[in-house]
Structures are given as structure tokens and as C-alpha cells.
Amino acid sequence: MMSKTKKKKKHRLFWHFFRIQLVLLVLVLTAAAYYFYGGYGKQVEELRQEAVRLVRQSDVDTFKANQTSIVYASDGSVISTLKGEKDSYYVSIEEMPVDAVTAIVSIEDKKFFRHHGIDYRALLRAVKAMVQNGEVKQGGSTITMQLARNIFLSQEKTWQRKVEEMYIATELENKYSKDQILEFYLNNIYFGNGYYGIQSAARGYFDRDVESLSLSQIAFLCAIPNNPTLYDPVTNKDNTVSRRDRILKNMLDDGKISQMDYAQAVAEQITLNRPQALAKNDYVETYTYYCATRALMEQQGFVFHEDFKTDEEQQAYEDTYSALYSECQKKLYTGGYRIYTSIDLSMQDGLQQSVNDTLSGYTGVNDEGVYELQASAVCIDNDNGYVRAIVGGRSQEFPGYTLNRAYQSFRQPGSAIKPLTVYTPSFEQNYTPDSIVTDEPIEDGPRNANGTYLGEITVRTAVEKSVNTIAWKLYDQLTPDKGLSYLKAMNFSRISPSDYRLATALGGFTNGVSALEMASGFATIENDGYYRTPTCIVKIEDGNGTVLYNSGQNPVLIYKKNAARMMTDVLKGVITNGTGKGLDLGDMPCAGKTGTTNDQKDGWFVGYTRYYTTSVWVGYDMPKKLQGLMGNTYPGKIWQSFMNKAHEGLEPLEFLPYARISDDLLQQQESGIGQPEDNPAEETQEEETPVGEIPDEETSVEETPVDAEN
């Protein structure tokens, strides 16, 4: 009797719970119906009609449509083509392994074969969230809805797009079979790194056709489309493997594979076998794609910045950046664009050859077979700020991912940073090349490399001989806040809160700088203090010739003109009398600065003429000492070799002179040099000089790098 009573109670509780859920469901549906039809009925009907029209006009070729983008050099010759893989590697459903279908269905849409384009239970969750929040934040998209979005719509998260996506999905299910929809989907979905479609991904990541992949490899590929950045096999392989394992577990639970198949697939080690080899223009291509993608992001209104007040703000920015970057990169590979660049292929070959020849005696390789000793270099046209040549490493026929060190690697700059953070800013504070300063020991400060001190010398001599104590004193007077503000204004991207200390006067940064950043910084000095964002993209047109993006460089004033010209005049002496002696370009006037870090781990030379600015870095990817590495050895020789070739046939041009400061002011300076109160930075600051926003950080003298050049 008790047992029957308990059963009745359980039965009543079940129906009570069911009625509550039914009421809630009705409320949600009512709210959703009111939301869509009560206030937006006309708009919803228009979306439905548009969906019907789009699908009716479609055919099989709609899902194979793809256009090739072309990248042009400055002379109009073709550098490379960006081909969407859907045309070249389209495979029918019959050619695909069954495992590819079951894997993608198991992770993306378990009810694919049971619904008619819409999974209403998943959709209800999304609708409920939309009613509560006023915007679409959750998924609910089936494979058919994803296909609708990828082919016909944008990635914009609005209720209008979601409604049209649903209507299109329903129409697709009416017009095409399930097998066709899966075929369209697997040939159009994005698998990261420029690969569209599973066949393209199979060749791109494993250098094999999809039909010859193992179960584990197929599941690995099917892990990518959900978030090609998060599950990027190249940069986030562990994430991809983890999601692969989840897919295999789903397939096991769904009865699509056996326990033995599952165990073997999970145990299989994934080894990427990317087929492309480094071509002579590979560094140009990677940089071009990067710049073009960011150009499209800018064209869509994205604002790039590096300063964040909180970790949450930074994470939100990075999420938005990643999503839009992927979307714009996809457009590059499928949009049929004409991308016009500033790259001079003759100069590019010359810069690459100078790097290769100078380092040819070092043949050691790492475990991956890549040369251990590396270099990067960038040449900027001083007339317009465009990148003319960029080298991210030594030439090497080596399959795999290309690291373009010129803009992707950040290293300690040593004394090469001094003109940007110490001396040009100090020239704005009424110092001149002839100001007298005292080279002497500093308590708790740096020492000179040779342990000797020169006493009273001019600022010009201090720069030419790369005297550490003078740079330290001037930076202390200037303050790290002020000195680093110039770098931030020129978009040096890796400035850390811990860099606001005196050690950065000598190049002691937390993260370092790139060759591209150094080239643009010195080009700013040559350009009378005006900074132009470095890029190689001149313009981008669509297939019809309509200009989508035009770089239209907008110079920004960083340094006062006279201060910049003083710096150039002093840097001329580095090559004629100082640490860069012997790196002259014959009759062509030039200026430059050497840089060497502790233990000879990094060597730099950055120099310029009226025509071009070129920066060169040499070192190991994993920092270690290189005997004989100085700014005036390998980096300087690369710079000199390339710049001589780049200036062949050009008329020698003298640098413009700076305005001399009055004798009265000079006498006033000489009577009290080195005293902060005598030359307060804020009192002498003119309106035209930009002031960056600097965090309120205390400076410290914890690690004092010793410049190796004196």
C-alpha cells in the first residue's frame, strides 16, 4: 500500500513539474512571439521574403563561389595570390570519409538528421537570453543555420540576422537534401590559417587528402571551425587536441565508432605536416597579409590601441580583435581583392641577400632544422613612410610555419634606443649637441663598458661614443614617464608598466622592441619629427575597381623639428667618429646608431639617409651570447651592404641643418648642466609637442644593463 502511495506521489510530482515547465515554455514563446511579431511584424516578414529570394536564386555553384585576391608590388608585378580553397579543393560528399560527417555532426549539431533546419530547444535558450538581454548572446545555430550565415549573411549578432538565418535555414532544407547541406557546409566552413573547406584543411595541416586521413586527424580538423583562433592547430594545438578528444567521445557515445577505435584515436599523436616551403618572398607575403587584414579592420571602424585600464578591458579588446581579424582575413582569401603594396622587389631581394651573405658562415640549426643565428631587417621610404623591404629571417627551404621576426619578434634594443627616448627628447629641453655634460661614476647607476670615464664632454661625443652615464643622467632628468611617452606615441606595442625605470635609458626593457618599430622610430627623426604608421599597403580595391581602403598617411608630430635635426646631425658623427665608424655609404650622407645588449645577445644597427631608413637586428631566437656581436659588426655590415645597393644611382643629399641656439642660452646651459631644476621639462615644453598619457609608475634602478659599446 505504501509503495502504491509513493508511486502516486511521484506521478503527481512529475505532472506538476511538467505543467510548470509547460507554462514557462508558453511564457517564453509568447514573449518571443510578441518580441518578433508584436512590434516587428513587418520587418520580420521582410526578412522572410528576403530569405526566400536568396535561396530560390541559389544553386550548387553558389556554395562553390570564390574569388582570388592578388597582391601587387610597387612596380605592378604580382607578388602572390590569395586563393580561397573552396574552388580548388571542393570535394563531394561521396569523396568524404564517413567519419568526417559523423565527427562534425557529433560536435556541431547532434540533431542534424532529425530537424528541419532549426533545433527549437537550443533556439529557445537563445531566444530567452535575447528577450532578457535585448541582444543575441547565445548560440542555438544548427549546421544549416551556420551554412546560411556563412554563405548569405554576416557574423553580426542581431535579432534581425538571427531571424533571417532561421528563415534561410528552413528554405535550404526545403530545396536541398541533408547530404547536399553537409557537403556545402564541409566545403565552406573556415578551418583557420586561410583554409576553407575540410579538403583544404587536410592538405594544409597534414599535406594529405581528407579521404586518406585517420579518424584522429579527422576529429582534430573538426575541432577547429567552432573557433579557428582558439583552436588554431599552429598556435593553440593543445586546445585543438582537447576538443578532438571531446569529439571522439561524442562519436563513441553516439555509437558511431567502437571502443577500440576510440582508444586508438585518442592515443594517436597529432603531428602537423604543412606543405608550404619558404619562398624568397615569404616574409613579404606574411607581412602583406597582416597589414591588409588590419587595413580591412580599420576600414570597418576598428580602433587599434595598446593601453588598457583593467585585465577585463584587455580581454574584451583581444576577443573583439581576434574575431574581426579572422573575419577580415577570410575576406582577403575569398573577396577577389586587388591589394597594392609599396614593396620594391629589387630592394627586397637585396635586403634578403645582404642578410644571407653576412651570416652565411653560421650554419648551425635548432631541433626543427631552422638556422639558430637569425636576423631581421626593415627598410622604410622616408618620402612617404611606406615599407619598401622587410626580412624576417635568413632564407631557408623549410616546410612549416613562418616566423617573421621583423614584426613578430621583440628584442632588447641596447643603446640603439637612446636617440628615441633620451637624446631627441633632451634636445627639446634646451640641450644642444654642444652642451657640456660630465661623464663620471654614478652611485647605483650604470658603468661604462671599458670602465673609464671621460670627464667633461659634449652631448655629441656622448652619443658618438655611446656613453652610458650621460644617457642615464639625462633620462633621470627627463624622467622615464616622459621618455617612454615618445615610444607610446609611435605605437611601440610592448611597453610594460615595469619599463618605467631608469634602466630603459640603456635599452633594458621587459619585452623589447621589433625591427619594424625601430625603423619607424628613426624614420620619424629623419622626417623632422613626424611619425607615420608603418605599412606596406597603399590601397585595396574590390573586383570592380572600387577603392575599399586607401592608406593616406597622416603624419603625427612626435618630436620638435629642431630637436630631430639636432639628433640627425649628432648621429652622422656616430658613423664618422663613433661606434659606427666604417659604416659610411661613400658620398651619400648618412646617420645611425649602434646597439648591443649584455653578453652580446642582441646586436642592432639603425641608420638612415634622406632616402631610406633601415633597421637591422641580429641574434639567436633563444637569446645567447654570440662572440663578436656588436652593433657595428654583423648588423652594421648588413645595413651597409644593403644601403649601398639601395642607393645606387641616387644623387647624394645632405641632411637639413638645425637652427643654432643663441649664445646667451648656450652660456646659461653651460653654467648649470645636469641640474633638473635648471631645465625643467614642463617649463620648456611647447604646445606643438605631443604629450602621451603615461601610467603613474615609480621608477626604480633594479637591473642596470651595461652597453657593450664605448
UniProtKB/TrEMBL annotation:
Residues 666-710 are annotated as: Disordered. It is found in: Cell membrane. Residues 376-627 form the Penicillin-binding protein transpeptidase domain. GO terms for biological process: cell wall organization; peptidoglycan biosynthetic process; proteolysis; regulation of cell shape; response to antibiotic. Residues 76-251 form the Glycosyl transferase family domain. It is a single-pass type II membrane protein. In the N-terminal section; belongs to the glycosyltransferase 51 family. This is Penicillin-binding protein 1A. Cell wall formation. Synthesis of cross-linked peptidoglycan from the lipid intermediates. The enzyme has a penicillin-insensitive transglycosylase N-terminal domain (formation of linear glycan strands) and a penicillin-sensitive transpeptidase C-terminal domain (cross-linking of the peptide subunits). Pathway: Glycan biosynthesis; Cell wall biogenesis; peptidoglycan biosynthesis. It comes from Roseburia inulinivorans. SUPFAM superfamilies: beta-lactamase/transpeptidase-like, Lysozyme-like. Pfam families: Transgly, Transpeptidase. Its EC number is 2.4.99.28, 3.4.16.4. GO terms for molecular function: penicillin binding; peptidoglycan glycosyltransferase activity; serine-type D-Ala-D-Ala carboxypeptidase activity.
